[in-house]
Amino acid sequence: MVTSVDSDVLKALSDPLRMQIVRLLAREALCTTHLVEETGARQTNLSNHLKALRDAGLVDTEPCGRFTYYSLRPEAVEALAGELAKLAATAREAAGRKRSC
Amino acid sequence: MVTSVDSDVLKALSDPLRMQIVRLLAREALCTTHLVEETGARQTNLSNHLKALRDAGLVDTEPCGRFTYYSLRPEAVEALAGELAKLAATAREAAGRKRSC
DNA sequence: GTAACGTATCACTCCATGGTGACGTCAGTC
DNA sequence: GACTGACGTCACCATGGAGTGATACGTTAC
């Protein structure tokens, strides 16, 4: 498929809390403790969501002593943005086309 | 919030069947019958998903006799793509920044 | 008029997923 | 060594959402 638009990434981003995490990580790398402060969510809950983001390839982890730094992977977000832009372009040039019933 | 990245739109796109519908509609306007043929899903099921896409502002409807044509709204997809690109850009320029523990 | 067709809505079941507490593990401090 | 704090994993429960059949509504054909 040409425009495969990774469904896993979209799913990972479709949760409001995960989206909030991604927005925070876009500004600077943070460790779980910071995210607990910023979001008000429980550590366990965050750990689950961070695992989901990791599995989707959206964030990188970097252990630092007993802390773990999380950072956003710009290329993953860019890839998704590109796919969507391509989809929109396709829709624009197909505007008006309709299959007859 | 600057990068508000509409969570509803992401949620609407995060379902594989809905993503498939969007991809089909990007190429040409289709009515439910066509989508039933293309996807193999039940009419009721499709109607539900189309409602979700309508509510998210991703598709337009155009009644045509007893048929209803659905078409993708490029601007909705473009808006999302733009937000994500902006997010990726923020992440790129913040690369290396980390909050100390 | 009635029949047939395309589509939307409702009520329901079932499954996936989010949130939580208990617990385990690893690193640093004493 | 023991203790504490930072994270991750597991098992459980509750909720949301997907899929479905029955049904209602509007339009076209007869």
TrEMBL record, chains A, B:
<keyword id="KW-0804">Transcription</keyword>
<dbReference type="InterPro" id="IPR051081">
    <property type="entry name" value="HTH_MetalResp_TranReg"/>
</dbReference>
<keyword id="KW-0238">DNA-binding</keyword>
<protein>
    <submittedName>
        <fullName>ArsR family transcriptional regulator</fullName>
    </submittedName>
</protein>
<feature type="domain" description="HTH arsR-type">
    <location>
        <begin position="1"/>
        <end position="92"/>
    </location>
</feature>
<dbReference type="InterPro" id="IPR001845">
    <property type="entry name" value="HTH_ArsR_DNA-bd_dom"/>
</dbReference>
<keyword id="KW-0805">Transcription regulation</keyword>
<dbReference type="Pfam" id="PF01022">
    <property type="entry name" value="HTH_5"/>
</dbReference>
<dbReference type="InterPro" id="IPR036390">
    <property type="entry name" value="WH_DNA-bd_sf"/>
</dbReference>
<dbReference type="InterPro" id="IPR036388">
    <property type="entry name" value="WH-like_DNA-bd_sf"/>
</dbReference>
<dbReference type="InterPro" id="IPR011991">
    <property type="entry name" value="ArsR-like_HTH"/>
</dbReference>
